[in-house]
Amino acid sequence: MGLGEALAGLMEMNDCVVLSGDLGAGKTQFAKGFAAGLGVDDDITSPTFNILFEYVGDELPLLHFDLYRLDEEDELTDIDFFGLLESGGVCLIEWGEKFAAAMPDERVDVQITIADDGAREVAITGCGPRGTAIEAALAKIHDAAL
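RE: above sequence
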């Protein structure tokens, strides 16, 4: 089981994951595993030109945001970002660091970087009580797999 899939297995209604990393770091690959973990059968692509793709999962819908093309925080209101965060699905937000102050307090931050040898390194940090609980549960899954 991949990391994205494992993280998705811990998600509940209105949970939020903010996915960060440079272009080409592997955010879309992570999103594919995450979507698979939610039971999404659709082909997952980066929603860069659409800002948002919505998918139906086995139990929870996935709202996959890509904020790369947005320039101002006010544009989040234009796309009903704040309403969608509480719409009952799971939100996966790429490029959320552009609007860090607008991201929900309760979330999981996933930072993907490319090491000098080309390997991907993933850092996962829970924010708020729910995010911290998810981080701890994911660590237990990872430790059990070793």
